[in-house]
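## Example pair
The file below holds two records. Each record gives the amino-acid sequence first, followed by its structure token line.
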Amino acid sequence: TYSVLPITSDVPPLDVAALARAAAVEAVRADPLLAEAHAALGWQEFWLGWDWPAAEASLRRATLLDPNYANAHRWLGHVLSNAGRHSEALAEMARARELDPSSPLLRVLSAQAAYQARDFDAAERHARQAIVIDRNFWAGHVGLAQALAAQGDLDGALVEADEAHRLSGNVKGLVRRGYVLGRMGRHAEAREVLREVERLARVSFVPPSEISLVYAGLGDADGLFAALERAYAVRDVNLVFLPVDPKMDPFRDDPRFHALIERCGFTRRD
């Protein structure tokens, strides 16, 4: 539970990192043969610990203990995808879908893995399937928005970003609206989204990484890296996407990008 809070509820990661680690370690100590315990530890090591080799080891241990535990396969696929090991990641996601074919979240994670592998057609297919399974699952609309934007369908991406925002009540759809508006050249509207997100951030925690996406759409490198530095300061969990996020591609040659990846300790995608 503690590991999920910063991902789904916009809780500051530093507020729960120690609790998440302690709970996961205690679960493994209590039952070393429980696949779910090793998977939970791996999930914490990935998102909050930023120790990807340890995360992979824990999740592989979980898949050995219970080869039919879908969550272990999908989380392992997530780790491998963010490390740039795309063929392995897609194989793990496919195995997870065999075990849990009706999960909209698994379809979204499959879309994310395909998106990060630059297979945008497959990303779109998986995101649409998530929406077929649950039309009100906001993350499916986020996944579809980014897949469409990557393919140049900015009008469609804007519709999906707005639907994600309507359904979620969080900033993830809103900042993707700002990203798409920036890509469309509608910079005044994108900066209005920035002002709205910054207003929300004065009231409750907003991951700075989310704000950085609007700057990415605007092509504003200085704004982007300022937001990412704030993200690093609070150990923003979404920084785990930096090595492979297509939205970051225009900025990969900037020395600030490589310096940040190295400080985070992530494997850089070449």
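Second record, same layout:
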Amino acid sequence: MSISNISHGNLVSLYGYCVEGNQRILVYNYLENNSLAQTLLGSGRSNIQFNWRSRVNICLGIARGLAYLHDDVNPHIVHRDIKASNILLDKDLTPKISDFGLAKLLPPNASHISTRVAGTLGYLAPEYAIRGQVTRKSDVYSFGVLLLEIVSGRSNTSSRLPYEDQILLEKYWHVRNLECIK
């Protein structure tokens, strides 16, 4: 099984490739609404309005794509880099998981794969970041961070904000702990 053999409505479709000497290029379908990072979390140059229905549909589409990779493909695939810039949007705002450069095949009956840590800080599951053990749960953790971004409409990290608000997860846990104290 290779990434080029899988097909799902919430994954980018590989149309072809070209190899000339040491130059390689992959050809995917055109997705006119760029990435979720550019349209939802970007600098505001997008004219797309993300109401709650579109945000929920985007979240559900990403979840369906991940469920397909994790459960329906054999061997199972762990993406390892689920983040807003790797979610592309078509003309109908259907999310497509892209960038399988870090993906790993999970062998049958394996609980995890030990590997060199790669991916994007802020999205890495703790057990993966600390021990290099990647599982399907690693993608689920990254998806959870992405959900917070989609719901809040802000990036996982932002150095433009006051120090205590720069990291979205820390901000969320701080607010949650304050609510638990009440």
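Notes on the second record: The mean pLDDT is 83. The radius of gyration is 17 Å.
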